[in-house]
From TrEMBL:
GO molecular function: zinc ion binding
Keyword entries, A-Z: Metal-binding, Zinc, Zinc-finger
Record PROSITE patterns: ZINC_FINGER_C2H2_1, ZINC_FINGER_C2H2_2
Protein name: C2H2-type domain-containing protein
Transmembrane segments: none
Keyword match rRNA processing: no
InterPro entries per the UniProt record, alphabetical: RegFact_GeneExpr_CellDeath (IPR052797), Znf_C2H2_type (IPR013087)
Highest taxon of source: Eukaryota
Boundaries of every C2H2-type domain copy: 22-46
Length: 684
């Protein structure tokens, strides 16, 4: 008797032509049960060369990249048809078959509503091409790739659209592009022909159904998520992935959508000043049924900076534990001197369970005042005027409690007010709310915060600036709100990094480098609406949204060619979020649509613009500047080589003094401009 695990190793005798799935087409009129037997038969009996490659990959991600390239270059496609085989050792085996392998589905001609297609994808038999993946317990992959196809021609029309291509098309549909424009954008192949170049209206219909997109207005029916999904997918492929948590890979099947963001610079800032004051805010985005959780740090100079944020549509006790756990996994435990939260003990309990206890935990005065105003409607009387008077009296009393600095005076006033509230039934529901939410006055009363002054003005700025960016009272598109948050984090990062001269010079060089790259890449743009464009990368097919916010520059962080600053445009790409420079898509839009219009004055308040005519004099001027720069670089290289041979201390000091003066001269423009406007958020 043979054990069941050894069945696959036994050679099964061939059957008649119609017995098994893998058939010999060389006149033998026989078929085989397994693919390996057909390959052996063709190789031995008919001397057909079956190409076999043995490959190794460190992880599944690298294998997926190789598989995608193999399918794209050879016009083939592989599907995972059979179940995964799992061994007791933890190893797994996957089988990828040629997409042409399989049985055709037949429909009775009498029931057909349209004519049958002339050619179908399935062969009604098996192809010899196969990929066998053996995954070990440590995650490494060993691949046996049988490359030779049998029984069919390699034809591009039988290849399905890849997941990346489908997401790219869905993004364009979501942006509101007409179907004709989407089809036209992929009809002109650059280089070799690809499957996406054969895109048809039937493909558009299938993508529409798959992503649940209503093509009448280009929006997703349930939630505007595809743009966000594409962004998070691109983040996952970046070197420093800013996505620390992501829960909706199964779009659009999953109902629970949550993700958390923290860039490398944000994590560095949290490590650096996270021991001072940490502020946790939770903002309900009513128009799109989402909650935005944001973690800020406030340094000793009372300057705030957002270090992490989380979007979620389901908030419970475990949501905050998850958020803090992901932060701890990225940067380690944070022990701030002061933790400021919304008016609920749940926030502190979640922090304490993950990060540990905090010496001082206070309620956010700004959020506390908002909470009081919202709950004043619990006070209801028979007469409207009486209701208004009682609500005003309660609110004024609470504001007085906040400002009392003496503990004894505070306790006496609080007791007297509570007695008044308890004697009047009109205050019953409000009293229940107040005693439940503010039972511990040490978390909100000023008299218990001696020696721990809170940055009240900065807390107000945090709340106001965040709402200005999100514009959540007017905006209903979730993806638009999401990208507004991305712009907020990016602008705050730039604002923080501009504290040093080195970073200012870094921004200028990065902007110029992106401009050169934009001129080299193959991009195409579509004007969607006023100040909004879609930019598509021809090679990858990915589309991004570029939006214009400012007519003129507001700072000196410019591209020396475009003469626009970092705050003039925003883009939905990952590089805009993590690169802290104008991405190639912004440069492309400016060069394509605004090339001839530049600003005259360095003055931020200047509204004048002129049209520059490119002529021979301008070209000579550019050449002259380039010659000077090359000469400076050459002399600097000579100086660097000669310094190594100088032994005299006085000479070295003299050279150092001269170099310092030259460096100061090169930075004088940045020095004069300053960064005062950024602190006031004038670029909103």
């Amino acid at each position: 008797m043979v054990h069941a695990l050894d069945v696959e190793r036994i050679d099964i005798l061939p059957g008649d032509f119609d017995t098994y799935h893998y058939k010999c087409l060389e006149g033998c009129s026989i078929s085989f049960k397994y693919n390996r037997e057909l390959r052996r038969h063709l190789s031995v009996k008919h001397e057909i060369n079956i190409i076999e490659l043995n490959l190794d990959f460190p992880n599944t991600t690298e294998f997926k990249k190789w598989l995608h390239n193999e399918e794209t270059e050879n016009y083939v496609q592989y599907v995972h048809l059979t179940a995964t085989k799992r061994r007791s050792t933890g190893a797994e085996t996957y089988y990828y078959e040629c997409s042409r392998t399989g049985k055709r589905s037949y429909v009775d001609d009498t029931a057909r509503k349209r004519r049958a297609r002339k050619c179908v994808s399935k062969l009604n038999r098996g192809c010899t091409s196969q990929i066998i993946v053996n995954k070990s317990h440590d995650g490494t992959l060993s691949v046996n790739y049988f490359k030779t196809h049998y029984g069919h021609e390699v034809d591009l029309e039988h290849v399905k659209l890849s997941k990346q291509d489908r997401c790219s098309i869905a993004s364009k549909l979501l942006l509101g592009l007409p179907v004709s424009s989407v089809l036209h954008s992929v009809k002109n192949p650059s280089g070799s022909l690809k499957r996406i170049n054969l895109l048809g209206r039937k493909d558009i219909v299938n993508i529409r159904k798959s992503f649940n997109i209503d093509l009448k207005d280009g929006k997703i029916v349930n939630i505007d998520q595809i743009n966000v999904s594409q962004f998070l997918t691109e983040c996952n492929a970046s070197e420093h992935n800013p996505v620390i948590y992501w829960s909706f890979q199964e779009f659009p099947k999953s109902d629970e959508l949550s993700f958390a963001l923290m860039t490398k610079y944000q994590s560095d800032m949290l490590k650096e000043i996270g021991n001072n004051t940490v502020v946790l805010t939770s903002t309900t985005l009513n128009n799109c049924d989402f909650e935005l959780i944001t973690l800020f740090v406030i340094g000793k100079s009372w300057e705030s900076f957002p270090v992490a944020c989380m979007f979620t549509n389901k908030v419970n006790d475990g949501t905050y534990n998850l958020f803090f756990t992901k932060i701890k996994d990225r940067v380690g435990a944070i022990t701030p001197a002061v933790l400021i939260t919304n008016c609920d003990q749940m926030y502190y309990e979640a922090w304490k369970s993950v990060m540990g206890e905090v010496p001082c935990n206070y309620y956010n005065p700004v959020q506390m005042e908002i909470d009081w105003k919202l709950n004043l409607n619990r006070i209801v009387c028979n007469e409207t005027d009486v209701t208004r008077v009682k609500r005003k009296w309660v609110y004024d009393s609470l504001k007085i409690f906040q400002s009392i600095g003496d503990e004894t005076e505070f306790v006496e006033n609080l007791d007297d007010t509570m007695k008044v509230l308890s004697k009047d039934d009109d205050f019953k529901h409000f009293l229940e709310y107040f005693t439940r939410s503010f039972s511990d006055p040490k978390k909100w009363a000023c008299c218990y915060r001696t020696g721990a002054d809170l940055p009240l003005k900065q807390l107000e700025v945090i709340n106001d600036v965040l709402r200005q960016y999100l514009n959540e009272d007017l905006e209903t598109r979730f993806d638009v709100i999401f990208h507004s948050l991305i712009r907020f984090i990016r602008d705050e990062t730039v604002n923080s990094m501009l504290k040093t001269k080195t970073n200012r010079a870094f921004f200028l060089s990065e902007n110029d480098a992106r401009h050169v790259l934009a001129m080299e890449k193959r991009l195409s743009g579509v004007h969607l609406s006023e100040n909004v464009w879609s930019v598509t990368e021809v090679e990858s097919g990915s589309a991004h949204i570029v939006q214009k916010y400012l007519e003129k520059k507001c700072c000196n962080l410019i591209c020396t060619t475009c003469l626009i600053c970092l705050h003039c445009f925003s883009c939905s790409c990952v590089d805009f979020f993590t690169g802290n420079a104008m991405c190639v898509h912004v440069h492309y839009i400016w060069v394509t649509y605004f090339k001839s219009t530049v600003q005259v004055s360095d003055d931020v308040s200047c509204d004048e613009e002129i049209v520059i005519k490119i002529d021979e004099e301008g070209e000579e001027c550019d050449d002259h500047v380039e010659v000077l720069r090359n000469a400076i670089a050459g002399r600097t290289a000579v100086l660097n080589s000669n310094v190594a041979n100088i032994e005299n201390v006085g000479t070295l000091r003299l050279i150092l003094e001269s170099v310092n003066q030259l460096c100061d001269l090169a930075q004088i423009e940045n020095e004069e401009q300053g960064t005062e406007h950024l602190n006031d958020h004038e670029y909103l």
